[in-house]
Amino acid sequence: MANANQPDVQQAANGDTLPTEARLHAIERQVAEQSERLAAAGSPERPLNQGNLSDEVARLRDVSSVTTQRSLVDRIGDVDDDLRATTIRFQRARQTQHEETDRRLRRHA
């Protein structure tokens, strides 16, 4: 089961969840395979545009960054909610203890 707060996991447009590094490695593998095929075929052309590859890498990093920020904001919100709930429980417990102490003192006075 994947952790929703992992910074290196992203939701792809087609719904697949892949680590960013895995997607980068897949792209690099595709580039290497295509280059090998072109070299083996003796093709002088190189149809792969390196700019597109750089754009894809930049896009994946941006998506990863946004996903990381979203995860951090969600986690900070959860921690803030937990802190508020704990503070309220502590204040209620303290007030109850104070009231019980007052009642005991009044009985003994």
Please give the order of strands in the largest beta sheet. Answer: 1-2
Elements, N to C (H/E)? EEHH
Total number of strands: 2
Task: Report mean pLDDT, rounded to a whole number.
Answer: 77
Strand content: 5-15%
Distance from first to last alpha carbon = 61 Å
* Main beta-sheet annotation: 2 strands, antiparallel
Oligomer: single chain
Number of H/I helices: 2
Rounded to an integer, what's the Rg over CA atoms? 29 Å
Helix share of residues? Answer: over 70%
The class by helix and strand makeup works out as mainly alpha
List keywords for this structure.
109 residues, two-stranded antiparallel ribbon, 2 helices, mainly alpha
How would you briefly describe this protein structure?
The protein is mostly helical and about 110 residues long.
Structure description:
There is one protein chain. This protein is mainly alpha-helical and 109 residues long. The chain contains 2 helices and 2 strands, in the order E-E-H-H. Strands 1-2 form a two-stranded antiparallel sheet. Helix 1 packs antiparallel against helix 2. The chain is rod-shaped, with a radius of gyration of 29 Å.
